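Thread: "does anyone have the structure for this chain?"

Original post by V.I.:
We have the sequence but no experimental structure in hand. Need at least a predicted one for the grant figures.
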Amino acid sequence: MHTEQTLLFDADDTLWENNIYFEQAITAFISYLDHRVHTSEEVREHLNHCERATIAEFGYGLKSFQRSLVACFEQLSDGPMTAEKHERIVSFARSIADREIELLPSVDETLRALKSRHTLYLVTKGNLEEQTDKLERSGLAPYFAGVEVLAEKNPAAYAELVSRHKLETAKTWMIGNSPKSDINPSLAIGLNAIFIPHDFTWVLEHEVVEQPRGESRLLELGSFVELLGHF
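Reply from O.Q.:
Generated one for you, tokens below.
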């Protein structure tokens, strides 16, 4: 594409690894719970239910994840929650916060090249402090003309962002790994979208990728560096 485009990038599991650390924490939590009746799959499904409820009340982020683990344990455990058990459960969430930022392959050099030709924004969701901290630690902040940390990524949020930044929908692309948060809501308001699947996309972000309507365009790429072949 020879004309300048506006590229909106998701962060977690698009620019850097994220959900694999949550999956590791969940595996450790399920092992610790060691339920005598429910299978690991049933415990995981109950945790998903707890996460949906927690997110609805408190939003995204590690504190919400920690609340979900505690709630799941309290609801499924035969015994009472003790201070020792609570601290152990909290440690599973804390282990995620201690992780170094691991960029996905070719992200840094690809963003550097794209910045020289297009306008780049980071558009993520979650806890503002946590997401800002991850961006700073990633070293990628200089590539972005602006950073948006949204409470939720839905059509209304994208429409407000487009209006506020006066973006031209035909030349604006949302790039990410989540059908639910990145691809479908951006297509719904007439943006273009690029789906870059990740093997460990969070289960609560799974949706069938919708087909674009009207003039919107949708691409699916196998890797981040493939963006350079299109932009």
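V.I.: this helps a lot. The chain has a mean pLDDT of 93.
O.Q.: and The domain at 6-16+102-229 is CATH 3.40.50.1000 (Rossmann fold).
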